[in-house]
Amino acid sequence: MAFQGLEKDAAIAAGELVGILFAGWLLSHLIGRLVLLIMGGSQEGPSPLATRIRRMIAKTGALFTFLTAFGVTALNGWLLFTHRGVWSTQVEFLQRISPEARQALLVAVLKVGAGAWLCSFLLGWVGKGLAWGREWLKSQEWSSNQESVDRLTYSLTRIIERVTWLAFAWYGAKTIGVPESVVGLLLTAIKVYAIIALGLLLWRALDVVIETLQQLSERIKNEYVWMSYYDRLQFLVPLARRSLEYIIYFSFASMAMQQVDFISGVALWGPRAVRVIGYFFIARVAVAVVTLTIDELASRKAKTDLESNQRLLPLVPLCQSILKYAIYFAVSVAILGAVGVDPG
Asked: Taking the CB of residue 80, how many other CB atoms lie within 10 A of it?
C-alpha cells in the first residue's frame, strides 16, 4: 500500500511538471501572438521590432517556466522524501480555501475560456466577411486601384483582431480580479490604441477614395463641359490629400492624448492645428479658383472684343495679385485667431 501511495504521488508530481511546462509554453505563445497582433508590420510579415520583442518574451517565459517547474519539483521531491504525501498535502492546502473562493475561481476561468472561444469564433466570421467585401470591391468597374483596396481591408482586419484581443485581455483581467489600477491602465491603453487605429483606417480609406475619384474623373472628363477645368485644378489634389492626412493625424492624436491625464493639456492644440490646416487649404483653393475665373473671363472677353482685350490684358495679373494677397491677408488673420493671438 505504501508503494502504491508513493507511485501515486510520483505520478501526480510528474503530471504537475508536465502541466507547468505546457502552461508556460502556452502562455508565452499567446503573449507572443498578442505582440505580433499589436505590433505586426505589413502584409509581408511582422516587423523586426515585433520579432525581437516576441523572442525576448519567449526567453523570459522559458526562464520563468523553468524556475517554477524547478521549485514545484523540489517541493514535491521533499514531500516524497519525508513521506508526507504529495496528494494529501495538496488536498489539505485546497481545503483551506473557502468553497466560495474556489467557486469564484472556477467561474472566472470558465468565463475567460468562453470569452476566448467567442472572440476566435467571431473573428473567423469577420475575416470571411471582409474577404468577401474585398473581392466585391475589386470586381467593380470603377475600382481599379487594387493595391489600395488590399491595404485598406488588411488594415481593417488587423485592427479588428487587435482591438478584439485587447478587449478580451481587459475582460480577462477584470474577471480574474486583477487590481483596479492595472485594469484601468489596460482600458486606457485600449482606448488610445483604438483611436490611433481608427485614424490609420481613415487614412487608408482616404487613399482609396481619392484614387477612385481621380480615376473616375479621368474617365468622364471628356463627357462634361465643366470637367474641362479639372486639368487646370488637378494640382490641388496632392495638396488636398496631404491636408486631409494632417487633419486626421492631429485630430486623432488629440483624442488619444485626451485619454492620458498628464498630457491631456497638450491635446488642446489639436483642434487649433486642424483649423490652421483648414484655413491654409481654403486659401490655396480660393486663390486657384480666383485665378482660373479671371483667366476664363479674360479669355471670353478676348474672343468677343480684341480691342478691349489689349487694354484688359495688363490688368489681369494685377487683379489676380490683388485678390490673392487679399485672400492671404484674411486667412492670416483667421489663423492668428485660431492659435489664440488677437490680431487687433
From this structure: 16
Under DSSP, the state recorded for 100 is: H
User: In sequence order, what are the beta bridge partners of 42?
Assistant: 45
Total residue length of the chain: 344
Top-confidence residue, 287 or 226 = 287
Q: How far apart are CA 106 and CA 97, in angstroms?
A: 13
- Sign of the torsion angle spanned by Cα atoms 220, 148, 143, 247: negative
Coil, helix or strand at residue 42: strand
Determine the Cα–Cα distance for residues 113 and 172; give it in Å rounded to an integer.
Answer: 9
Looking at residue 228, its pLDDT comes to 63
Model-level pTM greater than 0.90?
Answer: no
The proportion of the chain whose per-residue pLDDT surpasses 70, expressed as a percent, equals 77
Q: CA dihedral defined by 22, 23, 27, 32, rounded to 10 degrees?
A: -10
Rounded Cα distance between 252 and 246, Å, is 10
Task: Provide DSSP, 138-154.
Answer: HHSTT---HHHHHHHHH
Phi, psi for residue 45 in degrees, rounded to 5: 150, 180
Please report, for residues 26, 128, 241, 280, 322, the alpha-carbon distance to residue 277 in angstroms, rounded to integers and kept in the order given: 49, 39, 12, 5, 23
Residues 6+ apart with CB under 8 A from 127: 157
Helix (H, G, I), strand (E, B) or coil at 31: helix
Query: Dihedral angle at the C-alpha atoms of 277, 282, 283, 289, nearest 10 degrees?
Result: 150
Q: Tell me the C-alpha distance between 285 and 279, whole Å.
A: 10
The answer to whether residue 335 scores a pLDDT higher than 70 is yes
CA 257 – CA 199 distance, rounded (Å): 13
Q: Could you count the other beta carbons within 10 Å of the beta carbon of residue 142?
A: 11
Strand partners, 45: 42
Buried residues in 18-49 as b, exposed as e (16+ CB within 10 A): eebeeebeeebeebbebbbbbebeeeeebeee
Distance CA 257, CA 248 (A): 14
DSSP 8-state symbol, 260: S
CB atoms within 10 A of CB 211: 17
